[in-house]
Design a protein that fits this description.
Belongs to the methyltransferase superfamily. HEN1 family. InterPro entries: 3'-RNA_MeTfrase_Hen1_bac, Hen1, Hen1_N, Hen1_N_sf, SAM-dependent_MTases_sf. Pfam families: Hen1_L, Methyltransf_23. Its EC number is 2.1.1.386. It is a single chain. The protein is of the alpha/beta class. It folds into two domains: about 190 residues, 2-Layer Sandwich (c-terminal autoproteolytic domain of nucleoporin nup98); about 200 residues, Vaccinia Virus protein VP39 (Rossmann fold, 3-Layer(aba) Sandwich). The protein has a seven-stranded antiparallel beta sheet. Helix 10 packs across helix 11. The protein is elongated, with a radius of gyration of 25 Å. The chain starts with a strand and ends with a strand. About 5% of the residues have low confidence.
Length: about 450
């Protein structure tokens, strides 16, 4: 994995001063995941080019990884080659003074905007070239992204690109842009995302991200869509109250509810899931992605469910669930049956094991498609309840919603919406891989042409 930065600024060898690296020397750095080398293939008065080469051991990554089903789960993967969070960490380590806007002995040089040429030989973008352009072009870069590998089929976007850019920037701004945007475009991170990641984003992006037209998308991807962290970051970036950001999120949720409200579809979903859990005789139920607790509320009202847990990645959403359920005023016996946990559905969690049934009601469509493998591993390989209930929108039915523009999804945060054939294929493969069998049930009016608005898979072993 490597990146080169070049300039024709006069004298071009000022690049060495800016980066605090001597052009005649090979600089090497030991990192937790490999070794970084910095060298200058060209260094003259008219043209200077610096290369950061990152050598990663993929075997050691796999052996030490807890990233179930993610890109580190296989010995053969793209992490040693494609620009990602590994490269971002290396940039911050080896060019730390430059990224912070410092240049010892030449402070005026650090404040000077210089024309740079940047070359990233391999960058993964699952959403194609458009995402790369939307990230860098608003910052003043001229972007050339050439697709690598075979030509995509079925109009699907290419996944890997060679990124070449030119732009006039202060060196600190250039490095900060790369530090934030490369892992955001790649869409994954090799380390745990916690509150300190918000601090990193604010330190590197507070000067430019608030005015960026893709600030929400970038923030979500940089923080791996952990809603509580995204909300906190946006609130600080925009210097607004976190509740204001939450209000915007609730407005988006209300849009989906408004589309489905005439069908009372949410009530039908809860009722159908509840009837299914009763039919299979489940006594303990785990609600994955429990949100504000609508299913939890229905489960608590039925005494046959003796152990109930709700898990969600967002602490703020769990707080709203606790308020909705009146947790503080709940009768002691009822309260003993319920647990609320903050946790990711794509990381193995020992608390998820031991339940008769697990439910993911309108959850999977909020995940990036590549993360479904991790979700599958967490639920079906590790938690392994006797019954798993999954509901998701039926894309074919969208033509029946008069208020939904053609081609749009029901919720702005949906990463995909599947037709019936695609959902059945995915569910069938999951069941086969993990020793389950799956049945499919419609939720809502079952149209003879486009099917029901919601599709449900019931997995049993």
């Amino acid at each position: 994995m490597l990146i080169t930065i070049a300039t024709r600024h006069s004298p071009a060898t000022d690049l060495g001063y800016l980066l605090s690296k001597h052009p005649d020397r090979l600089n090497q750095f030991e990192l937790a995941f490999g070794k970084a080398s910095v060298f200058f293939p060209h260094a003259s008065h008219d043209y200077c080019q610096v290369c950061l080469l990152l050598e990663i051991d993929p075997v050691s990554l796999v052996r030490g990884s807890t990233n179930e089903g993610g890109p580190l789960a296989q010995y053969v993967n793209d992490r040693p080659y494609a620009a990602s969070s590994f490269l971002a960490v290396a940039l911050a380590r080896v060019f730390s003074t430059a990224m912070n806007g410092e240049c010892k002995g030449r402070p005026e040089l650090a404040a000077t905007e210089i024309a740079f040429e940047i070359d990233v030989p391999v960058l993964r973008s699952r959403t194609g070239e458009a995402a790369i352009r939307r990230c860098f072009e608003p910052l003043g870069y001229t972007v050339h992204a050439d697709a690598l590998g075979e030509t995509p089929v079925n109009d699907s976007p290419a996944s890997y690109f060679r990124l070449r850019m030119t732009g006039t920037q202060r060196i600190s701004a250039l490095l900060q842009h790369l530090y934030v945007l490369l892992p955001a475009i790649d869409g994954d991170k090799h380390y745990y995302i916690g509150n300190d990641e918000v601090d990193k984003l604010l330190a590197k992006a507070s000067g430019w991200l608030p005015s960026h037209p893709e600030r929400e998308w970038i923030t979500q991807r940089f923080l791996k869509r952990q809603r509580s962290l995204v909300r906190a970051a946006l609130a600080q970036l925009l210097e607004s109250d976190e509740d204001d950001v939450e209000t915007q999120e609730q407005t988006r949720e209300a849009r989906e509810e408004g589309i489905e409200r005439p069908l009372s579809l949410n009530e039908q979903r809860i009722g159908t899931v509840l009837a299914t859990l009763r039919a299979v005789g489940a006594g303990s139920v785990l609600d994955l992605g429990c949100g504000e607790g609508r299913l939890l509320e229905a489960l608590l009202d039925d005494s046959r469910f003796t152990r109930i847990a709700g898990a969600d990645v967002s602490l703020r959403v769990l707080e709203r669930a606790a308020d909705r359920l009146k947790l503080e005023r709940m009768a002691p016996r009822k309260r003993e049956r319920l647990s609320l946990w903050q946790g990711s559905l794509t990381y193995r969690d020992a608390r998820f094991a031991g339940f008769d049934a697990a439910c993911a009601v309108e959850v999977i469509e909020h995940m990036d498609l590549p993360r479904l493998d991790a979700f599958e591993s967490v639920v079906f390989a590790h938690a392994r309840p006797s019954t798993v209930v999954i509901t998701t929108p039926n894309r074919e039915y969208n033509v029946k919603f008069e208020t939904l523009p053609a081609g749009q999804m029901r919720h702005p945060d949906h990463r995909f919406e599947w037709d019936r054939e695609t959902f059945r294929h995915w569910a069938g493969c999951v069941a086969q891989r993990h020793g389950y069998h799956v049945e499919f049930l419609p939720i809502g009016a079952d149209d003879p042409v486009v099917g029901a608005p919601t599709q449900m898979g019931v997995f049993r072993r």
